[in-house]
Amino acid sequence: MSMHTRLFIPGPVDVATDVLLKMATPQIGHRTKEASVLQKSIHDKMQKVFYTENRIMLSTSSGSGFMEGSIRSCTRKKAAVFSIGAFGDRWYKMAVANNVPADKFSSEPGQPTLPADVEKALATGLYDVVTVTHNETSVGIQNPVEEIGEVIKTYNADKADEEKVLYLVDAVSSAAGAKIEVDACGIDCLITATQKALGLPAGLSICSFSQRAYNAAKQVPFRGLYFDMVEIFDTIDKKNHQYPSTPSLAHMFALDYQLDRIMLEGIENRFARHTEMSKYVRNWAKKHFGILVTDEKYASKTLTTILKPEGFDLKELNKRLAMRGYTVSDGYGKMKDKTFRIAHMADNTLADVRGLLFEIEDILGLK
Ligand SMILES: Cc1ncc(COP(=O)(O)O)c(C=O)c1O
């Protein structure tokens, strides 16, 4: 096997060896009390990471699993899908592929979803679901989910329960690296995945799911089966934290352990570490290249999208970085040719990031 290169790409991320080893825990029966205890333990710890009292649900899939499951299970009338890049577009594609009525609202390239955009769409009265990407990984932009939440709360204030709009948020590349207060924002479903800021291998999708979302989803006749949010919610409730199908217990052993590590660091310290790394990389990138995001208020905490200068050869840089034990990421989607990305998430520290940037400076002869 070739030498391992440290991953500064937006997932999968490097996983601490002790966390990886937890995946080798001997298997247990998934219908045992032990499995229930494990699943409840993850549930309670994830509630702290998400700042919520809502039910936490796990799925043996990558993050896309709950994105597809939530839009299909929750949309009764029509979904308003707000997109600022490739992953917002993906949520819209999922709606179309599942015959879920949806409209897509795209921001100008490099711009966030603004609360006013959401307000305007809701004023039509056509929608009962809003989807927002918290951290759009293709462009390195973080959307103002709190302000958008206020707009949705105001819209819902005088509506009967069945008329209320549900708020679904994709935090696949940011949860556990950036603070998202689910209950304070009024988020009905917050989705993440293990292979990003949580610092585990890919394989589990994790979401919070509100009682309101559950009640609404019950009105939807065809929710699919594997990602039926009602079925998963009911099984957790009625069978004491069990799941409808066989979950990846290996991931659960590791996630439960990693959540202890996260609590040991302190969740607020973890967010502060991500903010510190993001500021450092942005300042460095501005000095040497330029960054995509125009208003730094919306800059991602978990990755930085950097403008490629004329003739910049990312492949060549990565080849030379690999010899020194590092990898960074190319641009993604429509921004592939114009940008490259440096991720700073999960268990990486400022010292790790500085080590990477030092090597890039040395290779490119940056002063
Ligand atoms: C913002 C965002 N949403 C959704 C996804 C899809 O997640 P997954 O690859 O875990 O299915 C990704 C993956 O990179 C992402 O960054």
Task: Describe the overall structure.
This protein is α/β, with parallel strands linked by helices and 367 residues long. It folds into two domains: 6-13 and 266-364, Alpha-Beta Complex (Aspartate Aminotransferase, domain 1), CATH 3.90.1150; 17-263, Aspartate Aminotransferase, domain 2 (3-Layer(aba) Sandwich). The protein has 13 helices and 13 strands. The chain has helices spanning 17-22, 33-50, 64-74, 86-97, 115-123, 145-156, 182-185, 211-217, 229-238, 249-265, 267-288, 314-323, 350-364; strands spanning 6-8, 55-59, 79-83, 102-106, 129-133, 135-136, 141-142, 166-170, 189-193, 205-209, 303-307, 326-330, 339-343. The strands form three sheets. A seven-stranded mixed beta sheet has the order 2-10-9-8-5-3-4, sandwiched between helices. A hairpin with a 4-residue loop joins β6 (135-136) and β7. The model has no long low-confidence stretch (mean pLDDT 97). The site of pyridoxal-5'-phosphate (PLP) has 13 residues, from β6. Pyridoxal-5'-phosphate binds next to β6.
